[in-house]
Structures are given as C-alpha cells and as structure tokens.
Specification:
Blueprint: E1 5-10, E2 13-18, H1 28-43, E3 49-54, H2 77-85, E4 91-95, E5 98-100, H3 102-109, E6 112-116, E7 120-122, H4 136-144, H5 146-155, E8 159-160, H6 161-167, E9 172-174, H7 178-188, H8 204-218, H9 224-237, H10 240-256, H11 258-272, E10 290-294, H12 298-309, E11 313-317, H13 321-340, H14 346-355, E12 356-359, E13 370-373, H15 379-392, E14 398-401, H16 408-412, E15 421-426, E16 435-440, H17 446-458, E17 462-466, H18 474-491, H19 495-505, H20 511-518, H21 520-530, H22 537-548, H23 574-586, H24 596-616, H25 623-633, H26 643-650, H27 652-665, H28 674-681, H29 686-695
This protein binds (2S,3S)-3-hydroxy-2-methylbutanoyl-COA.
Length: about 700
C-alpha cells in the first residue's frame, strides 16, 4: 500500500510528498506521516529546509470529513500545523488544485507558499457548519488582513491563486515546474512563522461590523458564521496561543451543533445522486453536442442558456417570429445582466449567444442529438409536440420533456421510440436553479439515462433520478406542504405568520409568497382539472376565490398579498383576511391562534410523510436524494439537511407519533407512511435505510 506521506532527500532539502487519493484529505495516516516528516527534517543536520507537495490532482483539500463524528485520533490537525510553524527550518508549501480547509491551514503553518496559476485556496468549513479549526481563523487574518479573511471564511468560496497572491497568502505564482520553483524558494525562504505576524488592525472594526450585518441578513439562523467572526475578533485582541484556544473551543461548539451534522449529511448526499443502480462507467453514452429546445419562454429560454453555458450548441424553436425574437432578446438581456455584474465578459456573452440559433422550422431539429420540449403544461400539447418530433428527429436522438408533473410513459407512448424518451425537469429560472429531476420512464433505455446523468454535470446541474409519478419527487411532496400551509391560514394563522415561521426555519421563501410568485392560477387550473373530490377544499376555496377575482399573485399586482408596482415585497391585505374568515365560517372551522412550531411541524411532516411514500415506491432511489431535491429545487435550508434528515434528527418515533395524531384529527389528509411506521418501530432512520440499500 502506498504511504500516505513519503519523504525523500534532494540535496539539503527534504521533499515531503502527501499521497492520499482522491483529494489528499488529512486523514489520520496523513497527519501521522506529516509529523514523522517534521521529525526527520528537524533531526537531520544535513537538511536545511523542506518542501511540502501533494501527488494527484490537488493539494490537501481539507480534514477527512469521513472521520467526523468518530473519536478524534492524535495527532490532531492544530498540532500538526503548529509543529510545522515552529520548526527551526523553513518549509515551503507547493500548491496545485484546491488547497482547502485543513489543507490550507497546513500551508499557512508553512513559512512560504508557491502555487501554480490555476490553483485555488479556500476555507469552506462554513459550508459544513464548521469553522477553520486548525488555526485558519488566526493565521489567515495575519497574512491576508481581516477583511479578506472574513470574506474567505464566511463565503467559503474558492479564491484564485492570483487573488490570494495579492492578499499576501501566496508568495510566488509559477508557470514552471511547481516542485522546482518550490525547491528554489525553500533554499532562500526566511524562517517566518505566520503566527508571529501581527494582525493589521486598520479597518478591522469596520470589516467585523460589515461581516456581522452580512451574516445576519444572508446567513440568517446559521450558527457557524457568528462563531467565525468571534474567532477573528479573538485574533485581533489576543496573542496567538489564546486565539488558538478560542478557535478550538468554538470549533467544538460548531461540531456539536446539529447544523454541522446536517451540512455534512448534505455534502455526501449531493455526491451520491449520480450513483444509479444499473448505470456504471461502462454503460454506453450517446454523444450530445447539439441540443434542440422547443419553446423560447421562461423555461425554454433558461434551458437554452443552461445548455449554452455548458458548451453545447442550441437550436431554439418557437411557433412564430415574435415569440422567438422575444425569447432571444430575453436571453441576451440575462447574459448582459451577468456581464454587468462582472460574472462574465462581453466576449463571453457573444460566445454564448453564438451557440444559440433560433428557428421556426421543426425540420431544423433533425440534426440535434437531444431535444428538450418546454411547451405548455398540457398533455395534449405535449403529445402533439412529441408526435412531430418522432417524425423529424434523427434516429438515436434523445427526446426529453421538461414537464413538471405529467406522465412520462404517456408522453413516450405518443412516439415510435419510447426508449429514447426521458423527463428532464428543470427548475425556474433554469439557467440559475441547480436542480434537474431526471425522470426515467418504463421504457427509457439505460444509455439515455446515463447520457442524461452526464448531461446534468456538464451543464452544472445536480441531476436527481426520479421514477415516473404525478409530480415526480419535489412537486409531489409540495402538495401536502401547500395544503397544510393553506389550511392553517383558514384555521387561524395569518398568511404572513405562516410564511414568517417557515422563513425563520430557513426556507428561502414562505409557501404563500411562493404561490404569489409562481401564480395562484397554476394551482387553480390543476384543481379545476382534478375535481373537488380530490383535495381538501377547505384549504383552497379561499385561494380560488382570489383567483376568480383576478388576484393571481405578483403578476397581477395582488394575490394573497398586495404588491406595490415594481416591488416584490408582500403586503398583508385586510380584504384577504375577510375572505379567509368567511372561508373558515363556511368550513365550520373555529379559528384559533397557531404558533410557529405547529406551522413548521405540520408543513415538514407533510413533506416527510410523502417523501417516505416516494421512497417506499422506489420513485426516489434514496432518502438523501429527496434532501438534495429540496435543498436545490425548493429553497430548503441546507443547514437543516433536507426534510428527510430533519425527520431523522427529530427521531422517527417522534415523527410517527405526530403523524398518527394528525391522521387522527384529519384522516382525509394524512395516510401515515408504512415505511415510517416500520423504520420507527425498528428504531431505525432514513439514513440507515439508505445505507442498507447501498449495500444491497
Ligand atoms: N474528506 C473526505 N472525502 C472528501 C473530502 C474531504 N474533505 N473532499 C472530497 N472528498 C471525496 C468526495 O466525497 C468524493 O468521494 C471524492 O472525494 C471527490 O470529491 C480542521 C475541519 C475538493 C473541491 O470542505 O469541496 O478541513 O464520492 O466529487 O467535484 O479546518 O470535493 O468519489 O467517494 O467533490 O472534483 C474542508 C470538500 C473540510 C472540501 C473536489 N474541506 N471537498 O471536488 O470532487 S473541513 C472541504 C470539496 C476542515 C479544518 C476543517 C470537493 C473538491 P467519492 P468531489 P470534485
């Protein structure tokens, strides 16, 4: 077995090589090896300095997340970093790939840092609900200054080597051989322990104040950001030793906080989704370079942009010139807006626009490898489109529907090639939202599914495979969530209280405000088509009354809330309150005060119960996939882990108990999931269920 850390002499230099694929995570073996290498460097008088370099694709990318939650094993990372910092001989860190988290902290404990231009550094611990716990909060401010250090630690973003060099973190950028450049520097590098550099206090107070206000606004309810700021304040006020002690204590607090367990769960959940039984690296794929998109409206335009952003050529088809011109103009406007924000250059805009060609002629789709329809959400319209595609698409082309609810098998049956048909359900705006539900039909061929999974990665989406059912994973679960929210409004909670309870929980938007955003008429039309016997009319009659009065939401200036022109801020409307009170009387409901806890609980339990049913039916491959769907498609807070992780954290025995209570009160709305019943009775969890299935 290759050694996690090996050393070799190069004249009077010691070359320390870390080799722990895939990302050189700082496992126990790596930490041990690094300590032994430091001992070797220290003990040999013939050695004047050291170079710390990594094999494979990247410098150390952080502590080994897989070790979290297990009893920590010495040597602990802070000790390793201090060991290097306090050596009597300089060590140069040679950085390529992404030096992240503990990896960067080890580099900060070295006496200088060389990087290739393509390298990036970062302290992304905040994304795991943690803080840099091996000296990063104390050493990065000393090299980069307080403002830059706070930016890096609170955003968790990757910082390009060139920017990090401007900050003073990277001492040299090399276009040559990284090892050679690092050896050259090692021979002349001064012994400069980072911890001995004083923190520059100029502007620090303003930077801290700005960070606090930003965290309160954009990281509402998150624990780790506030602790990171406390650590930086300690770096300003305390000597290094004491600052490190403060950091260690606050790191332990973050590690113990349920938000970290949730974010670590989510980290691995996101990386599981592409693992689909029956699909492997050996499964054939179809080449996709040209994509046809039918419909240049909001969805079609967004899908065209997502594909162009992934380097694909796009043929965008509309029914008439006006609609096509409008769609192309909207695409250009969106790209220009990104350029105005500095996210892309003007050349990038032209490059993307050149990839997108408009057409009014179905025949122009015949060269496409994949065609995605984003037309009106009606089965007859979809079937007509697929009937045409069946005639014009080349043999082997993948035919995809962007439907958000409708039956993929039914759509496939309107072609002579159902094995080429799949659902690619994008989320609006499709050029921004990362989630892509990949809906496999009964006949969908394995290579079509495999190609779609790869396509998701290529266009920077998170592709979650779903079986075929009404609403697939996300929208099917949304039904119960919306029903409970609406019902609690009739039962006594004001719309703004329901929304406030859920945004305090961490949802990006409250369900009622979402209704106004999406348009209340969408749900209205669905209810008209399914018929009153198929839903709890008490929850929706008041909304239907709004729609029938022309109050469709933001697009009509009023819906559940009022909206001032050009302003999306929802304003409660006493007129709506009166409608709600009348609805309660009609439904013979005695209104009562409903607290935030009950609001969150009933909405979450509705998601979890339906999610368990979806899991039990095999529509979702794993509970953690459902969590990924909700975090990326519905604004569910990652620091709660997703609805299924939330249920595990509550305990399925508690969940079952609450579900039975709700079912007792409103049997027509609550059918307790048998899967939850069996898992709860076995003292098990969704996580254990997933682990068990993964072994099968
Ligand atoms: N520990 C263990 N495994 C890791 C890992 C890590 N830190 N990072 C990645 N992996 C696994 C991942 O699960 C996957 O495994 C494979 O590597 C490829 O990852 C004290 C406490 C480095 C940018 O947060 O951001 O240091 O699925 O698919 O898209 O202050 O991985 O193949 O079995 O993501 O090319 C801080 C997390 C830790 C970095 C590469 N560091 N990793 O992205 O590949 S906390 C991080 C990433 C810490 C100290 C604190 C990305 C990447 P498998 P991948 P990628």
């Amino acid at each position: 077995m290759t050694q996690a850390v090996s050393t070799s002499r190069d004249g009077d230099l010691l070359i320390i090589m870390v080799n722990n694929p895939p990302v050189n995570a700082l496992s126990h073996a790596v930490r041990q090896g690094l300590m032994e290498a430091a001992d070797t460097l220290e003990a040999d008088d013939g050695l004047k300095a050291g170079v710390l370099i990594c094999a494979g694709r990247t410098f150390m990318a952080g502590a080994d997340i897989r070790e979290f939650g297990k009893p920590p094993q010495a040597p602990h990372l802070p000790e390793v970093v201090t060991r290097y910092e306090r050596l009597a001989k300089p060590v140069v860190a040679a950085i390529h790939g992404t030096a992240l988290g503990g990896g960067l902290e080890v580099a900060l404990g070295c006496h200088a840092r060389v990087a290739v231009a393509s390298a990036k550094i970062g302290l992304p611990e905040v994304k795991l609900g943690l803080l840099p716990g091996a000296g990063g909060t104390q050493r990065l401010p000393r090299l980069a200054g307080v403002a830059n250090a706070l930016d890096a630690m609170l955003s968790g973003r990757h910082v390009a080597a060139l920017e990090a060099a401007k900050w003073g973190v990277i001492d040299q950028i090399t276009e040559d051989d990284l090892l050679e450049a690092s050896k050259t520097l090692a021979r002349t590098a001064p012994l400069r322990p980072t911890g001995d550099i004083p923190v520059d206090k100029a502007g620090a107070d303003d930077a801290i104040a700005a960070a606090k206000s930003n965290a309160a606004k954009r990281m509402r309810g998150q624990f780790a950001p506030t602790q990171i700021i406390k650590c930086v304040e300690a770096a300003l006020d305390l000597p290094l030793e004491d600052g490190l002690k403060t950091e260690r204590a606050l790191f332990q607090d973050c590690m113990a906080n349920p938000q970290s367990a949730a974010l670590r769960h989510y980290f691995f959940a996101e990386r599981q989704v592409a693992r689909v039984p029956g699909i492997s690296k050996d499964t054939p794929r179809r080449d996709v370079t040209r994509v046809g998109v039918i419909g240049a409206g909001t969805m079609g335009g967004g899908i065209a942009m997502a594909c162009a952003n992934g380097g694909l050529k796009v043929m965008l088809l509309e029914m008439n010139a006006d609609a096509l011109d409008k769609g192309l103009a909207t695409i250009r406007k969106n790209y220009d807006a990104s350029a105005a924000k500095g996210r892309m250059t003007a050349d990038d805009v032209e490059d993307r626009m050149e990839r997108i060609t408009g057409t009014l002629d179905y025949a122009d789709l015949s060269a496409c490898d994949l065609i995605i329809e984003a037309v009106f959400e009606r089965m007859d319209v979809k079937k007509e489109v697929f009937g045409k595609l069946d005639k014009v698409a080349r043999a082997g082309a993948i035919l995809a529907s962007n439907t958000s609810y409708l039956d993929i098998d039914d759509i496939a049956a309107s072609t002579s090639r159902p094995s080429d048909v799949i659902g690619l359900h994008f989320f609006s705006p499709a050029n921004v939202m990362r989630l892509l539900e990949i809906v496999r039909g009964k006949a969908t061929a394995p290579d079509v599914l495999a190609t779609s999974i790869d396509l998701a990665k290529r266009i920077s989406k998170i592709g979650v495979v779903s079986g075929n059912c009404h609403g697939f994973i996300g929208n099917r679960m949304l039904r119960g969530y919306g029903r409970e929210a609406n019902l609690m409004v009739v039962e006594g909670a004001a719309p703004q209280d329901v929304d406030a309870a859920l945004t305090s929980f961490g949802m990006a938007m409250g369900p009622l405000a979402v209704g106004d955003l999406a348009g209340l008429d969408i749900g209205y039309m669905t209810r008209q088509s399914v018929g009153r016997a198929n839903y709890d009319t008490r929850a929706y009659d008041w909304v239907d009354e709004l729609v029938e009065a022309g109050r469709k939401g933001q697009k009509t200036g009023k819906g559940i809330y009022l909206y001032e022109p050009g302003n999306r801020r929802p304003i409660p409307d006493p007129e709506v309150d009166a409608i709600i009170e009348r609805a309660a009387e009609t439904a013979q409901i005695t209104r009562r005060s409903i607290g935030a806890d009950e609001i969150v609980e009933r909405c979450m339990l509705a998601l979890v119960n339906e999610g368990a049913q979806i899991l039990d039916e095999g529509i979702a491959l794993r509970a953690s996939d459902i969590d990924v769907v909700y975090v990326n498609g519905y604004g569910f807070p990652a620091h709660q882990g997703g609805p299924m992780h939330w249920a595990d954290a509550k305990g399925l025995d508690w969940v079952l108990d609450r579900l039975k209570d709700l079912a007792g009160k409103t049997p027509q709305n609550w059918a307790v999931s048998p899967l939850i019943e069996s898992l709860a009775k076995a003292g098990s969890s969704f996580a254990a269920y997933d682990a068990e299935k993964a072994k099968a």
